[in-house]
Write a structure and sequence with these properties.
- The chain is α/β, with parallel strands linked by helices and about 325 residues long.
- It has one domain: UDP-N-acetylmuramoyl-L-alanine:D-glutamate ligase (3-Layer(aba) Sandwich), CATH 3.40.1190.
- Helices cover about 40% and strands about 20% of the residues.
- It is built from ten helices and 13 strands.
- Strands 5-4-1-8-9-10 form a six-stranded parallel β-sheet, with helices on both faces. A four-stranded mixed β-sheet has the order 3-2-6-7.
- A hairpin with a 5-residue loop joins strand 6 and strand 7.
- Helix 3 packs parallel to helix 4, helix 4 packs parallel to helix 5 and helix 8 packs antiparallel against helix 9.
- It is globular, with a radius of gyration of 19 Å.
- It starts with a strand and ends with a helix.
- Bound molecules: adenosine-5'-triphosphate and magnesium ion.
- The site of magnesium ion (MG) has 3 residues, from loops.
- It holds the Pfam family PfkB.
- GO terms for molecular function: 6-phosphofructokinase activity; ATP binding.
- This is Phosphofructokinase.
């Protein structure tokens, strides 16, 4: 089977806690923190493992926070390929306020990567087998510019890796400039920013997706549309997949679950429709649980089977 590697350049050790009330100055007594791995590519690899697949997560680690992060991933069955860096892995904080139900998410800057440290990642990718899948997901840390990302992607493609990208803003633009990606998954807002205009109706979204396909920037685009599912486009097809109404608890992790599921389908050689159905199923499955939980195989299969009923009728 096709090997899957995810790359996360700005991972985090996420901690979650609850407090009764939020107020300034005084001490806010909190519950014992719960730790979880964080970062786009890391969550994509976790989602793949939740769905019964195999993935390696490649990311920098520094200091005790980094070791804690790598241990948590290993416990979950994700192969952690952690390259040591000087700066300590960042720690993000999620606070749930019980009296109001509010969520506060404190996001620190990623740990800085030096030029030498960044090159370690390029060297590691150079050792991956031709034809394998590389998922680049998440933000860029201090020390890494879009030109570095472009270089890494060019090198990866030159040696025959199929690249999947889920990021935003200048990093997304830079990846598409390299061209010929295997898959890109913007949400509607990210796509609008990319094409530099408002996308106010479904036809405008479809036109924008077709535009980047025709320009040869990517072989496939999946525009995720939250509760409305997703629009998948390649050079021959356009599919809209709408999930069944679900009782949404939290949308955190929906995008990463979706990318994980679609990556697994690409690794299996699935076609565009099957890939996006499984992606929408996993994304919606992730919303069924409170907090930061990713998709489960059981929920994903249930929604996927529902979405496939159209074929039988
Ligand atoms: N409220 C919802 N109800 C049902 N499904 C949802 C909902 N929100 C998201 N999803 C599912 O998850 C997929 C990805 O969600 P979304 O479009 O919000 O991605 P995203 O903006 O990249 O998310 P993230 O914030 O995780 O990066 C959707 O295509 C859909 O299948
Ligand atoms: Mg997203």
């Amino acid at each position: 089977m096709t090997q899957i590697t995810t790359l996360t350049l700005a991972p985090s050790l996420d901690s979650a806690t609850t407090t009764d009330r939020m107020y300034a100055e005084g001490k806010l007594r909190c519950s014992a923190p719960q730790f979880e791995p964080g970062g786009g590519g890391i969550n994509v690899a976790r989602a793949i493992v939740h769905l019964g697949g195999k993935a390696s997560a490649l990311f920098p680690i520094g200091g005790p926070t980094g070791r804690h992060l790598a241990d948590l991933l290993t416990e979950e069955g994700v192969t952690a390929v952690a390259l040591e860096t000087h700066d300590w892995t960042r720690q993000n904080l999620h606070v749930h306020v019980e009296s109001t139900g509010e969520q506060y998410r404190f996001v620190m800057p990623g740990a800085r990567l030096t030029v030498d440290e960044f090159q370690l990642f390029e060297r590691h990718l150079a050792g991956l087998p031709q034809g394998s899948l590389l998922v680049i997901s998440g933000s860029l840390p201090p020390g890494v510019g879009v030109e570095n990302l472009r270089h890494l992607l060019r090198e990866a493609q030159r040696q025959g890796l199929q690249c999947i990208v889920d990021t935003s803003g200048p990093a997304l633009r830079a990846c598409l400039e390299v061209g010929n990606l295997a898959l890109v998954k913007p949400n509607q807002k990210e796509l609008a920013e990319l094409v530099n205009r408002d996308l106010i109706d479904p036809d405008a979204v479809r036109q924008a997706a077709l535009e980047i396909i025709r320009q040869g920037k990517t072989q496939r685009v999946v525009v995720s549309l939250g509760p409305q599912g997703a629009l998948a486009v390649d050079k021959d097809n356009v599919f809209q997949v709408v999930p069944p109404p679900v009782k949404k608890m939290s949308t955190v992790g929906a995008g990463d679950s979706m990318v994980g599921a679609m990556t697994q389908k690409l690794a299996d050689g699935a076609d565009l429709l099957d890939m996006v159905r499984y992606g929408v199923a996993a994304g919606s499955a992730a919303t069924l649980h409170k907090g930061t939980r990713l998709c489960t195989l059981k929920d994903t299969r249930r929604i996927y089977d529902y979405l496939r009923q159209d074929d039988v009728i």
